[in-house]
Amino acid sequence: MFDLKDVVAVYLGKPNKCMCGCSGDYAYTSHNHIYGGKDRGYKILPKEISDRKVRARLKRFYNDDQEAENIKDYIFTKVIDDRQITVYLKREEK
């Protein structure tokens, strides 16, 4: 399980499609939305910030038994039924 303070955003959308937001959407944590905006290159809108959505998506992610695909130790993704859930963590500063 991820510490919510380390989670930047959780994407929920159609599997194996573009993840720009046209096939799903991102929910950003209130704790890391400023970091998320800098990381993506533009400001996060207030409607994109929802700890409630993030928690609900994480619950679904955790309740699925399959192993998550790990991308560079800060992106974790699963395809669950007809949805892809991708968790983005804050990258450690070097």
Provide an overview of this structure:
- The protein has 94 residues and is an alpha+beta fold.
- The chain has one domain (4-89).
- Helix content is 22%, strand content 30%.
- The protein has 2 helices and 5 strands.
- The protein has helices at 33-40, 51-63; strands spanning 7-13, 24-28, 69-71, 75-80, 83-89.
- A 5-stranded antiparallel β-sheet has the order 2-1-5-4-3.
- A hairpin with a 3-residue loop joins strand 3 and strand 4.
- The longest helix has 13 residues, at 51-63.
- It is globular.
- The mean pLDDT is 95.
Structural class: alpha+beta
The helix/strand series, from N terminus to C terminus, equals EEHHEEE
Strand content: 25-35%
Given the structure, what is the number of helices? Answer: 2
The description of the largest β-sheet is:
5 strands, antiparallel
Oligomerization category of the chains in this entry? single chain
Instruction: Provide the residue-averaged pLDDT.
Output: 95
Total number of distinct structural domains:
1
Strand order, main sheet: write it out: 2-1-5-4-3
Low-pLDDT runs of 5+ residues are none
Identify the overall geometry. globular
Radius of gyration based on Cα positions: 12 Å
What's the end-to-end separation, in Å? 24 Å
The total count of strands amounts to 5
Roughly what percent helix? 10-25%
Task: Please render the helix and strand layout as text.
Elements: E1 7-13, E2 24-28, H1 33-40, H2 51-63, E3 69-71, E4 75-80, E5 83-89
Antiparallel strand pairs: 1-2, 1-5, 3-4, 4-5
